[in-house]
Amino acid sequence: MAERLRLMPGAEIPETMLGIGDDAAVIERREGPPLLFTIDSMVEDVHFLPDIPAEYAGYKALAINASDIAAMGGRPLAALVSFVAPRQTDVEWLDAVYDGFAQAASFLETPLLGGDTAVGPRIVLTVAMLGSCPDTAPVLRSGARPGDVVCVTGRFGGATGGLRILAMERLIRKPEEDYGHPGLRLLDRHLKPQPRLEAGRRLAKAGATAMIDVSDGLVADLGHVCERSGVKMTVEAMSVPIDVDLEAVADKVTHNVLETALTGGEDFELAVTLPPDAFKKAAAAVKGTGIPLTRIGVVEDAASREGDDVLVLQDGEPVRFAQPGWIHFEGK
Amino acid sequence: MAERLRLMPGAEIPETMLGIGDDAAVIERREGPPLLFTIDSMVEDVHFLPDIPAEYAGYKALAINASDIAAMGGRPLAALVSFVAPRQTDVEWLDAVYDGFAQAASFLETPLLGGDTAVGPRIVLTVAMLGSCPDTAPVLRSGARPGDVVCVTGRFGGATGGLRILAMERLIRKPEEDYGHPGLRLLDRHLKPQPRLEAGRRLAKAGATAMIDVSDGLVADLGHVCERSGVKMTVEAMSVPIDVDLEAVADKVTHNVLETALTGGEDFELAVTLPPDAFKKAAAAVKGTGIPLTRIGVVEDAASREGDDVLVLQDGEPVRFAQPGWIHFEGK
């Protein structure tokens, strides 16, 4: 379905605009830096469980859009919200969602200019965000070149660990006792993602050739870059940084830490390709934001080998996963 | 609820931005003309009946956003769609919605850059639209001044007439036989609203002091202008132009043509205030787009009289309506 949206007929898309096959659409203007434009909906029961504290739903609706802006190397400019809710929705719950919007707007320094409200059978929070790229051209998914190194910010698997604890806690409800502080931090990784805005801009300045935010899962999202760039990648599994809190409680939340890190979605870290000689400068720049940049693989010519676009190696052997990542409605 | 969105805390709204208490939010930029930013959701069973031809739902989702841009005197720049639908939604239905998106994008000359798709229990179509005001400052709801004349584009009540025919036709299904060509045109007024983009820009250039698109109902929407401008208005009921097709089939679709015209929503005409000496030029400019501009009332000082913000007179007597317009979830 998203594919159809990408190939939408109707008013022709001018050459100065790029459809949203990327993290955000790009609108070049005669005056001023290019604009970034993105939209994302969160549906109750699909994207969030209705019994999480409501402020997390509000927070996350803004944060996931900001992450799309981060993946282009941009800065959020303003956001609007469309809030669909049943008529009988509890007012305290609504207020808590607004608190979450406010927290995210403040944290992301993104003015929330208001929006639209409507009655509907189930909660749907849709955020549209406008951003700009004041210092560099937007970094697209399509720019990865053979010979580039594949890098990631931060650590992986934490959001999935948090989601699993949340699902189990719906039955038992004492995460601190069962999982200690690592468990609480994993919950936070799932409920309060931190878009890598500053890191994204620094990576853009350091010469990133392609970038994406990891929402579907690392292997799946690297696959999106390969598809748009017309390249393949080889990733060294043991190089992928694992969330330390996930490792601390691994025996309670996953059968396979590596699989969780490589295919679990919603870590909202950035995956980026860089010319090899740009890595050192990029890593130093990202480190200045308090998170690591780690080299995990290389970009290859599409014709250089057969098989999957993203080849994951462990001890020289290919690793295969049942699913490379979160499968969207009719594929995204 | 919309009131809360307007007063959203969080990141402070810079002085160069105007929250969406207006038809669209305004973002002033150092470089280039101001940007307009708006979002609107259409929910199945609330904003459209699931058995209308699906392309109308797609068309209307874009058109109602363009109408918000029109009411600021702007021009659409680009749009994004978020499409929430149940997993089992019929593919032909989805395709028809996309056809409607494409028709509207082409008609409105608005590139649809793509968007987001998600699974949900019921269809929700959310459109975010970006516009700009290349030639004038954005026309706000807050600029009406005592002494201004109150004017409207086009004719009123047609969309409500169409909605009533549609509701009745769910039982009988032969609109042409029952209502003739006027009935078909009323259906079109409901299903395919024509945002007054060109008229809006010409009114802005002609010196419009305040403007709004009539979505809630004429009296209700004039009330929004009064509230934001701190003024009152007196409207001469018999001056309000009635849809000729509504008049032609009036006995079949309404008990009170005047009430339908003054309080029925979704005509998506523009209501505008102008300094008296600007009316003639404005009317000539709007006539060039093929629709009339009609003077229907005057703007008054808020302290000049007691009572309702919008006073409707017929033969010198106040007219009262059970409801001034469409009542949104917790008020809009």
- Using the coordinates above, name the CATH class of the largest domain in chain A: Alpha Beta
Structural class of the helix and strand makeup of chain A?
alpha+beta
Q: Characterize the biggest β-sheet of chain A.
A: 7 strands, mixed
Q: In CATH terms, what is the architecture of the largest domain in chain A?
A: Alpha-Beta Complex
Number of E-type strands of chain A: 13
CATH superfamily heading of the largest domain in chain A: PurM-like C-terminal domain
What sequence of helices (H) and strands (E) makes up the elements of chain A?
A: HEEEHEHEEEHHHEHEHHHEHEEE
Beta-strand content estimate of chain A: 15-25%
The pLDDT mean of chain A sits at 89
Please, how many domains of chain A? 2
Which residues of chain A sit in consecutive blocks of at least 5 with pLDDT less than 50? Answer: 327-332
Radius of gyration from the alpha-carbon trace of chain A, in angstroms: 20 Å
Look up the CATH topology of the largest domain in chain A.
Phosphoribosyl-aminoimidazole Synthetase, Chain A, domain 2
Helicity range of chain A: 25-40%
Helix count of chain A? 11
The global form of chain A is: globular
Oligomer: homodimer
Distance between the termini of chain A: 7 Å
- Biggest interface, CB < 8 A: A-B, 75 and 75 residues
